[in-house]
Amino acid sequence: MRIIVSAGGTGGHLYPALALVDYIKEQDPSSEFLFVGTTDRLESEVVPQLGYAYRGLHVKGMVGNPLQKAKNAFLFLKSLSTSKKILKEFKPDIVIGFGGYPSASIVLAASQKHIKTMIHEQNSIIGLTNKILINKVDEIICCYEKALESFPKEKTKLLGNPRASTVHNKVLKDVHDIYHIDLDRKVVVIVMGSLGSASINKAMADALKKMENAPYDVIYATGKTHYDEMMEMCGPLNASIHIVPYIDDMPSVLASSDLAVSRAGATTLAEITSLGTPAILIPSPYVVANHQEYNARELCDQGACEMILEKDLDGDRLVKAIDQIMNDKAKQYALKEAASKLGKPNACRDIYQEILRLVEK
């Protein structure tokens, strides 16, 4: 089978796509893949490094002043022509879009050429690219009930995020071994995305000082660019507070921690629910359409997490919320059970079966 995968702009689009492609390779080593993305964003570096064939489209989002939008619209029309050339050369059996503006070009071109198409929506609020493609594609895969309700029912399936399968099937280490924590100590991991969050570091510094004598260890990932600043803000802390710039093996840390405090990006929530990790979510208010808050609310409505909005966050409130969960075994268990029920550990398998069905059809 020959598959074109398009995922543009951010890791939230790219890493679920890579997870699905890795799974398909395991099931059918003869499958051939071509990634289509931007010429200058994350995917243009990551995908070739992983050994996958890659084509970049010179496209921009529809943002800026009227003149800039007009220029970007011209680039989009030009990218449609380039996409049709790519399709003619590669001859895919199916084209799958994971969001980001390059997906609009290649998926729309495939639809016009009557090639099978599928899109994947990672968030509860539908992204602009997928909104454009709703009526053009053969099948839609989503991760949240709210998104399911917004898409055409006859061609939409709630199958989850491929990253859920990746962490579920991964050989995991124990957080106690990774950070040299006594096995009888509970662990709270706090991470505000791979880059960290300058906007909440002040509250986090205050919270960490208040948790020095707590009956649990705390791991706080600052993001590489904020590490030195955070260490200076906090000053000396006792050994139960572990401040690190980055967590290399996030699935292992999530799986063996007693509580996670995090943003509410699609990949993070796929991992949390697949692993059944109790969580307090602090959705980023700086993302398009405030989609992280909608993601978090969907979990909250199912009893799978607690949520604190960033505007309401301070050190005292965060410590209180953490202590309430860490001191209540029944609450921890309830959060874990509810999160696990929302998890989609078989997302890759189920999406692959839909791909096979579409191609055979």
Structural description of this entry:
The protein has 16 helices and 13 strands. By secondary structure, it is an alpha/beta fold. The chain folds into 2 domains: 2-161 and 345-360, Glycogen Phosphorylase B (Rossmann fold); 169-342, Rossmann fold, CATH 3.40.50. α12 (266-275) packs across α15 (329-342). The two termini are 14 Å apart. UDP-N-acetyl-alpha-D-glucosamine binds at residues 10-12, 123, 194, 247, 292. Pathway: Cell wall biogenesis; peptidoglycan biosynthesis. Keywords: Cell cycle, Cell division, Cell membrane, Cell shape, Cell wall biogenesis/degradation, Glycosyltransferase, Membrane, Peptidoglycan synthesis, Transferase.
What would you say about this model in short?
By secondary structure, the chain is an alpha/beta fold.
In angstroms, what is the radius of gyration? 21 Å
Architecture per CATH nomenclature, i.e. the level-2 architecture of the largest domain:
3-Layer(aba) Sandwich
Per CATH, what is the topology of the largest domain?
Rossmann fold
Strand content: 15-25%
Mean pLDDT: 91
Strand order within the widest sheet?
3-2-1-4-5-6-7
- The unreliable regions are none
Please indicate the count of domains.
2
Number of E strands:
13
Reported for the largest beta sheet, the result is: 7 strands, parallel
| Quaternary class | single chain
CATH class of the largest domain: Alpha Beta
- End-to-end separation: 14 Å
| CATH level 4 superfamily of the largest domain | Glycogen Phosphorylase B
Structural class: alpha/beta
